[in-house]
Amino acid sequence: MQVIEMSAEDVAAALEAGTITLVDVREDNEYAHEHIAGAVHMPLSRFDLAALPDDPEKPVVFHCHIGGRSARAVMFCAQQGLPIDSHLSGGIDAWKAAGLPVVRG
C-alpha cells in the first residue's frame, strides 16, 4: 500500500470544495491548542475504526503535527482493509508554513 502525501494547499482546496473529510489524529492538548477548522478530532492513542467518518463521497485524509502519526493511521487502516490512503504531508506545521489559518485554543 502506498501512502499518498497531500500538500497543505491540496488539502485546503479539497476542504474548501467539501470533497474530503480531514481527520486530526493528534492528542487532545494539541488539538485544543490549535487545529484546522473543519477537521474531525480522533486521537491516534484512542483510534476507533468504527468511529471513522464513512462518506464515500468524501474520502478521509489524516493529519497530525508533522506527518508521522497520520502516516501510521493510514497504514493501520490499510492493515484493516479500509481504503484510506492519504495524509497531509508535514502535518499542521506544513499547513501553517503555507500561510493557512488555524483555530487557536
Descriptive notes:
The protein is an alpha/beta fold. It has one domain: Oxidized Rhodanese, domain 1 (3-Layer(aba) Sandwich). 33% of the residues lie in helices and 19% in strands. The chain contains 4 helices and 7 strands. It has helices at residues 8-17, 28-33, 68-79, 91-97; strands at 4-6, 21-24, 34-35, 40-41, 60-63, 86-88, 103-104. A 5-stranded parallel β-sheet has the order 1-6-5-2-4. It has a two-stranded antiparallel sheet with strand order 3-7. Helix 3 links the parallel strand 5 (60-63) and strand 6. The N and C termini lie far apart (36 Å). The model has no long low-confidence stretch (mean pLDDT 96).
List keywords for this structure.
five-stranded parallel β-sheet; two-stranded antiparallel ribbon; globular; Oxidized Rhodanese, domain 1; 4 helices; alpha/beta; 105 residues
Give the proportion of residues in helices: 25-40%
Total helices: the number is 4
Range of strand content: 15-25%
Any idea of the CATH class? Alpha Beta
CATH architecture: 3-Layer(aba) Sandwich
Oligomer: single chain
* Rg, Cα atoms, Å: 12 Å
The counted number of beta strands is 7
- Give the overall shape: globular
CATH topology annotation: Oxidized Rhodanese, domain 1
Give the H and E element order: EHEHEEEHEHE
Backbone structural class: alpha/beta
Distance between the termini: 36 Å
Mean pLDDT, all residues: 96
What is the H level of CATH, i.e. the homologous superfamily? Rhodanese-like domain
- pLDDT < 50 runs, ≥5 residues: none
Q: How is the main sheet built? A: 5 strands, parallel
Strand order of the largest sheet: 1-6-5-2-4
Count of all domains: 1
